[in-house]
Amino acid sequence: MAFFRSLSAVEAVPVLAGEGVTLRTPQMADYAAWSALREESRAFLQPWEPTWPPDDVSRLAFRKRLKRYVRELEADQAYPFFLFRPDGALVGGVTISQIRRGVSQTCSLGYWMGKRHAGHGHMTAALKIVSPFVFETLKLRRIEAACLPHNAASIRLLEKTGFRREGLAREYLCIDGRWQDHLLYALLRSDVVG
Ligand SMILES: CC(C)(COP(=O)(O)OP(=O)(O)OC[C@H]1O[C@@H](n2cnc3c(N)ncnc32)[C@H](O)[C@@H]1OP(=O)(O)O)[C@@H](O)C(=O)NCCC(=O)NCCS
């Protein structure tokens, strides 16, 4: 995107600020907080995520993760964010990925919270600031999200932030080691700006 060409891809991504949350691009300095939060939340997150590789929370794996993030940012394929409280605590993450330009202008949304920070409204606040970034800054027109039919928290989160259910996709993603059916949701630019 022209918007990002003059600066390094990572520097060009704005810090997004909302009601009691800030979203910014992950950095190596986040490793200690990120690995501690992911490790203590392992049992809470695993039923809803792809199986974690054995070294997933290692420093080396995090370094590789950041390199992939930079490559994807430079290619306008994905925009990863970590989610922080005003006191600076890392509480979760949001990723805009699988960006399809051309006749699609679509992306996929993923999110997670650390177990002890869930249920405090942080992800609701985060999605309220992510959607303007997607529609106004990235100029996409559709955000897709998929969740397991028994993920009550995710369904409530999506529906209260304006996403509409579009259907059920059979064996859509391999989550927790099994190909599982998913509910498909989407938020359109026209749902927000008319
Ligand atoms: C889904 C998730 C990101 C929601 O984040 P969060 O910060 O806890 O969400 P919020 O606090 O903003 O709550 C959003 C809504 O969901 C509701 N909710 C939260 N946890 C819930 C639960 N376990 N069951 C039912 N509803 C729940 C909240 O009450 C709120 O609705 P309300 O305002 O009507 O009360 C978080 O629960 C999580 O990380 N879960 C595990 C991983 C996961 O599911 N990832 C997504 C895969 S698609």
TrEMBL record:
Keywords: Acyltransferase, Transferase. It comes from the Bacteria. The keyword Transferase applies. Gene3D superfamilies: 3.40.630.30. InterPro entries: Acyl_CoA_acyltransferase, GNAT_dom, N-acetyltransferase. Residues 21-190 form the N-acetyltransferase domain. Signal peptide: none annotated. Pfam families: Acetyltransf_3. The keyword Transport does not apply. PANTHER family: [RIBOSOMAL PROTEIN US5]-ALANINE N-ACETYLTRANSFERASE, GNAT FAMILY, PUTATIVE (AFU_ORTHOLOGUE AFUA_3G00765)-RELATED-RELATED. Belongs to the acetyltransferase family. RimJ subfamily. This is GNAT family N-acetyltransferase. It comes from Chelatococcus sambhunathii. The lineage of its organism: Bacteria, Pseudomonadati, Pseudomonadota, Alphaproteobacteria, Hyphomicrobiales.
